[in-house]
Each structure stands twice: as C-alpha cells, then as structure tokens.
Amino acid sequence: MPTALQISDLRVTLGGTEILTGINAEIQAGEFVGIFGPNGAGKTTLVRAILGTLRPVSGSIQIFGLPPGLGSHQIGYMPQERTGLDLTALSARAMIAAVCQGERWGVPWSSAEIRKEVDGVLQLTGAAAQADRPFSVLSGGERQRVMLAQALLSNPKILVLDEPLASLDPRNQALLIESVAEVRRLTKTTVLFVAHDMNPLMHVMDRVLYMAWGGAILGPLDQVVNSESLSQLYGFPIEVVRAGERIFVVSKEGNVTECAHHD
Amino acid sequence: MIDFLTTYLGYEFVRNALIAGTLAAILGAIVGYFVVVRNVAFAAHALSHIGFTGAAAAALLGLNPLQGILFFTVGAGVCMGVSGDKLHRSDMAIGMVLSMALGLGVLFLSLYHGFAGQTSAILFGDIFGVSEGQVVEMSVLSLLSLGALALFSRRLLFASLQPRLAEARGLSLMSLSIAFMVVLAVSVSLASQVVGILLVFTLVIAPAGIAARICRTFWSGLGTSILLGVVVVWAGILLACLTNQPPSFWITALFFVLYLVVEGWCRLRTRQA
Q1: Taking CA B258 as the corner, what is the angle to CA B254 and CA B261, rounded to the nearest 5 degrees?
Q2: Considering only alpha carbons, which residue of chain B is nearest residue A95?
C-alpha cells in the first residue's frame, strides 16, 4: 500500500505564534483517518498546510511523493466556510459546475464533459435529486452533501473534509458519514475527516489523529485515545471515559471537546 | 407612437443616449452579476462615490470628467482589491476611505468656481449630454472590460463561489480580486455618464441583483441581467422623452418596481414551499 500522506516534523507559524509544533504522521492510501482535538489545536491549520495554502516554517508534507501545490490536484477538499450565496437562486448544480475546472482561463462555460462529471459526483453522494434547486434553500444536510459532491470532482485520491458535521443534527450527521463511507468504498479514496466528536465516526475510521497544543498523535483509536497518551499530549491530566461503545475525553474542569466547542 | 419614436430617434442626442445607455447597461449587468455573487455591493457603491471626487478633481484641473473619474475609481479599486476575498468584511475601512474621498470632492468643488450646473451633471448624470466622442470612448472601454472578463471570468466565478477551494487549487484570490475591482471601476465610471454618480449603483446592482434572485444558472442569470438592464435603460430614456422628467428618475423607478415585484414573488413562493 503506497503512502498517501507523509508529514515530517511539520512546524507552522501564524502571526508570530507557533500553531503546529512538529507534527509527524504517515497515512496509507485508502485509510480513513479521523482528525480530532479542541478548537485552536491546529486542525484547520494542518488542513491548510496539506492543501498548500500555508507554507510551513520547517518540516515537509508529501502527497503521494509530491509537495503540496504540485500534489494538490490529488486532493478533494470540503471547506468549513459557508458560501455567500444566500441572496441568489444559483442551483447546487451550477455551483459545482463553476468549481469543475474552475482554474482554467476563459468564460465559465460548462462543456458536455463537465456536465457529465458534475452529474457523476452528484449521483455518487445522493445529491442529484436536490441539485437543481437553489443552493440557498437547501437544508444543512443537503448542502453538505452537495459540498461533498463538489470535493469529489476530478477523482481525488485524498478527500479532506474540514468539520463537515458542524451544525448538522445527529440524523444528518449519520447520513453524511454514511455517504462518505459509501464514496470511500466505491472510489477507494483516502479520507481525512476533521471533527469535534469521535463517537459518530467510530465504526468507519481506521485510525485517529488527535491534536492538542500544536502537537499530534496518530494511531489506532485505543492507542491514541486513552488517559495516558492524551494527558501527555495535553500536558495536564486528561481522563478518557468509556460508556459502552461511547468514548468521552474529559479534564478535571469538564469535557474538553465539549467546552472547546462553542465558537 | 411610431411617429413619436421616429421623431425622437431623429435627434442625435437621443441616439447617443441610447447607445451610451446600452453600453453602460450591458457592462453594468455583467459586472454586477459578479458584484452580487461576491457580495461586494458596498465596495461598488463606494467606488461610484469616489468617482465624484475624480470628477470634481477633473473639473478643477480642466480635464475630461471621465478621465478624472477613471483615475480615482481605478486607483481605489486596486486598493480595495488587495484585501482579496475578505473585501465584503471590510465595511469599516471602505466607509472611512469613502468619507475621506467625499470630503476631498467637496473641497475640489469649493475650489472650482465654474458653472454649478456641471456639478449636478456629475452627480446625477446627463445622458442627453453624451457626445459622439464620449460614445466612442465608452465603446472602447466597454470592449476592453468585457474582453478582460472573457479572459478570467471562469476563474473569477470559481473564486467568488468557493474561495477556499480556489486558493487550494493554486489561484491567487488577491490578483483575481484586483483584476475584478479594476473592471468594476471602469464600468462604474461608464455608468456614471448615464445615470450619474449618485445612481450608478442602480445599473450595477439592480439588474444583476434581480436576475440572481430568480435565475438558477450562471448563464441564465447573466442573460436576464443584461436583458433587464438594456430594456429598463431604453424605457427610461423614452419615458424621459415623453414626460420631460429626468431619465435617471425613470430608470431607478422602473428598477425599483421590478425589484419589489420579484422580491414579493420570491417571498410568496418561499412561504408556499
């Protein structure tokens, strides 16, 4: 199995503050990796470094052996930020068509080839039925499905999903995770899934990348999410509580993932 | 009616008004569509008012007003463009620069002791005063702007709808934003010849805003926007001929009625759905 993503001693500084303080991770092609940690842990910074929109101070990232930027066409990306389409009736299909080969020069004309590709990704995520309605009237779950479809354009080998579950209700969270799992089964793509809560992802992910204070540990769930290794990562006592199949990361003051959630 | 039309079309100033109005409407409609999807209406508004400073400076220095307007709006457009995809969040900075520019404009006007009627022409537009030379000037600038847009509109639409993604695919949000703001500055300057600086906003925002509210694809939105712009500008000019009231009034009034109708229809439909 080839290495999809190789991160070596990655350090990133933003506005004079060191956000990532030496991340090491090696992710195999086809793996489903959940990326967790409290707000400010550097999850989005790591995503941006992988995409090549943030330059590291030192260390390196290789995407199938290529540096970010050169390797970025291998990556399908679902951003956290919402688009400002609330005042327009632009359809989900029109939005994805604009993204498809959007980096080319010329006018935004959708060739037959582009229309076919847009159709394909919409089918793949089950968003086709909603695709001709205005994006602005879609529900949160429908929008995320469209955004997932858009991330699948040009057949990426790595799918980077930045907090796709934020602002979804539990039912839509489960549906979206199901779609991602289905896409992965069909396309064999590598998945990097950033989330706050690991519980909804337990049955689909292979390994966990847990981030805190600019550091990270990568490994199987049991090895990473236990009191000992997380206490070491956080630098203060952390307790991992298991209740049946559920898992909770708590500090003395309260639930770490929960109290970091309000943003 | 036909007699009326042929009589008025016989006048050169009416023909020039229709040509200038058409050019400004088409350019405004196309550029306006991107203003709407990029959410930079306030920046467009500010640009047109900064044009007032340019026009006042031109009057003071004895230059052609369009040159003065272009100089100031393009300069301001480049400065605004530097903030890339964050322009719609820079209301405070734009507002400060806008008030400074207006203050300068007032200073220039007080230093200029010319005919006061010219001030009103700068602010409210004088489409019946457009000369043949200005029509040629406007045609060249429109072609240049549309040519530039034809070159980079695909990238611009992508970056406007999904900035983070465009950045990840190696597009420079800042250069796209600067290029767009320059094109916007040129079209705002052209439109100010037709409806005046105070009402430029109408030609850039109204047709595109209405079209974007009802059209589900980029091309249908653009087509509807152009159609609305051209039809309303023509109707406004002809109504002005008929009633002797200013064309700017008719153009803005027609757009406002259209906006009310479309907005009402959209709301009614959402309520039903």
Answers
A1: 140
A2: B161
Q: How would residue B121 be classed by pLDDT, with cut points 50, 70 and 90? A: confident
- Are the C-beta atoms of A184 and A133 separated by less than 8 Å? no
Q: Is B64 left (phi over 0), alpha (psi -120 to 50) or beta?
A: beta
B169 vs A81: CB contact, 8 Å cut-off? no
B contacts of A101 (beta carbons < 8 Å):
154
Read off the tokens for A192: 């990097």
Sign of CA dihedral A224, A228, A233, A239: positive
Q: Of residues B57 and A252, which shows the higher confidence score?
A: B57
Mean pLDDT of B125-153: 92
Residues B82 and B133 sit within 8 Å (Cβ to Cβ): no
Cα dihedral sign for A149, A151, A153, A157? Answer: negative
Chain B partners within 8 Å of A87 (Cβ): 36, 39, 209, 212-213
pLDDT in tens, B176-201: 999 999 999 999 988 887 778 877 88
ipTM, 2 dp: 0.91
Interface with B, mutate which of A75, A90, A135 (most B CBs under 10 A): A90
Measured between CA atoms, how close is A123 to chain B, in angstroms?
19
User: What mean pLDDT value characterizes chain A?
Assistant: 90
Q: Which two tokens stand for residue B96?
A: 């400060």
B271, closest residue in chain A (CA to CA): A137
Token pair in block for residue B39? 């959410």
B-contacting residues in A 182-221 (Cβ below 8 Å): none
Interface of B with A in 145-174 (CB under 8 A): 150-155, 157-159, 161-171
**3-state DSSP of B37-98:** HHCCHHHHHHHHHHHHHHHHHHHHHCCCHHHHHHHHHHHHHHHHHCCHHHHHHCHHHHHHHH
Share of chain B above pLDDT 90, in %: 60
3-class secondary-structure state, position A39: coil
Report pTM.
0.92
Query: Which positions in chain A touch B168 (Cβ < 8 Å)?
Result: 51-53, 72, 75, 77
Phi, psi of A203 (to 5 degrees): -85, -10
> Distance (Å) from the C-alpha of residue A223 to the closest C-alpha of chain B?
33
The minimal CB distance from B161 to the residues A83, A107, A137 is found for: A83
Residue of A79, A92, A70, A44 lying closest to A159 (CA atoms): A79
